[in-house]
Amino acid sequence: MLQSIIFAVVAIAALGFAAFQFSKVYANIQLGKPEEITGPTSARWKNMILVAFGQKKMFKRPIPAILHLMLYVAFVFTQIELIEIFIDGIFGAHRWFLGPLGGMYNFIISTIEVLSVLAFIATVIFLVRRNLLFIPRLRKPEMQGWPTLDANLILIFELILLACIFTMNGTDVVLQDLDPDHYKATNFAVSGVIAPYIFGGMEASTLHVLERVGWWGHIIMVFVFLNYLPKSKHLHILLAFPNTFFARLKEKGEMINMPAIMYEVKSMMDIEDPNMPEMDPDAELPEFGANDIFDMSQIDLLGAYSCTECGRCTDVCPANITGKKLSPRKIVQNLRDRTEEVRTKIDSGDAEYAANKEEPVSADNFEDGRSLWDYITREEVHACTTCNACVEACPVLINPLEMILKLRRHEILTEAAGPQDWLPLFNSIENQQRAWSVGTSRTAWAEEA
Ligand code: SF4
Ligand code: SF4
User: Fold this and answer.
1) Could you tell me which residues come within 8 angstroms of residue 40 by beta carbon, excluding any fewer than 6 positions away?
2) Which of 65, 138, 139, 116 lies closest to 221 in space, CA to CA?
3) Three-class SS of residue 101?
4) Per-residue confidence (pLDDT) for residue 214, from 0 to 100
């Protein structure tokens, strides 16, 4: 009874705090601008099933893909055991599913155990790969500090969780001979074989304690993991699904058009467009592009929270490969970092961050004198060739190029800034509607031909 009460209290506290943290992530994504969702819903479901659930894009690199698959399948299957732990915890039962499922129960737990062994092997390989082998994309400057610690922590959590599963099952197997009334006979594929070697010969009281340590350790690691996720890159385990669903369906390389600019250019070139609205010469100029998260779209922010920090985008980026400062992964990470900074400041309620000091600070009344340019340098943004290689490489359909283009548009169109050597090009396009500033008519060559 006491254990059921403790379990209920711990579960409610852990789930409640996790729900609060996930609601914060949702609110953070809402800080961006809404973006029209276009294209057929069927194509979106297909993307989600193939890319997020089927991990389709991961298989371009078979070895990490197989290792990820081991972890992923083990993660999904272990949830079955988790349901049982919840039922046992609340009702004070022991292996509640064993009665109704009979032989099938042995099959399910054995499958979980085999998958857990594979997950254990994959986790150890990931730890070695990340810490002992020199994988260039895992050693880039943006991976120093927290991103590497985060990746290692989650792998260590995984090892502890797996150790708890085998302690729980293994001690149970040995206790079946010592206390058959409480520990019903099972036939597990892994712990049934190895448990006698590890736990055989121990006192029943020690085994009871270890069995409870494994059981509680398992569920507590799940709660820790759940509460850690919103702060971690491993949030992609959940957000990869909405991110792939809402990913833009337009052709790669097709930029999001800006109607205000399009109509301006058409009017400059005397091109008739029946959809063109009446221009108001006195209207205030809109802001173009984005220099902070508020002008990025919610899809961009969802992408930032879905990033696995795998570095596949940076690995194929020609700017990065040729030694430029640009790393598309860093751009995506910076977007999330800035969003977190804004959220912390809004939550502080500090009047210093209110744009209108008469009103309390909020998402709509925020000004801290900082922007994405405090995270991302102009040099990084200028180095992008707009080749789309990063977009193509991303295993969860994030589009770093769209973020870079928005920063560039803000710099060029709103700030009227940009690299000095780009200015003759812009002047020429604006004044003569061509890239090269030559005095002859655009069509002179055709007349001469
Ligand atoms: S689009 Fe830009 S950021 Fe992406 S790979 Fe190409 S150069 Fe790099
Ligand atoms: S943007 Fe995509 S490819 Fe780049 S690090 Fe994040 S998940 Fe990996």
Assistant:
1) 249
2) 116
3) helix
4) 92
- Structure token digits, residue 307: 């990033």
Token pair 């520990």: residue: 183
The bound ligand whose nearest atom lies closest to the alpha carbon of 312 is 2
Q: What are the pLDDT digits (tens) for 250-271?
A: 887 777 777 777 777 777 777 7
The minimum-distance atom of ligand 1 relative to the CA of 389 is 5
pLDDT tens digits along 99-139:
888 888 888 889 888 988 988 998 999 899 888 887 888 88
DSSP 146: H
Q: What are phi and psi of 271, to 5 degrees?
A: -95, 125
Spatial neighbors of 421 by CB under 8 A, at least 6 apart, are none
**Any atom of ligand 2 within 6 Å of the Cβ of 301:** no
The angle, 0 to 180 degrees and rounded to 10, between the axes of the packed helices 328-348 and 400-409 is: 70
Regions of the chain where pLDDT drops below 70: 281, 439-442
289 Ramachandran zone, left/alpha/beta (phi>0; psi -120 to 50): left
Contacts of 1 (CB under 8 A, 6+ apart): 92
d(CA 137, CA 286): 39
Which token pair is 183? 């520990």
Q: Is 398 in the pocket of ligand 2 (CB under 6 A)?
A: yes
pLDDT digits (tens, 9 = 90+) for 198-214: 988 888 889 999 999 99
The phi, psi pair for 297, rounded to 5°, reads -90, 165
Rounded Cα distance between 313 and 225, Å, is 27
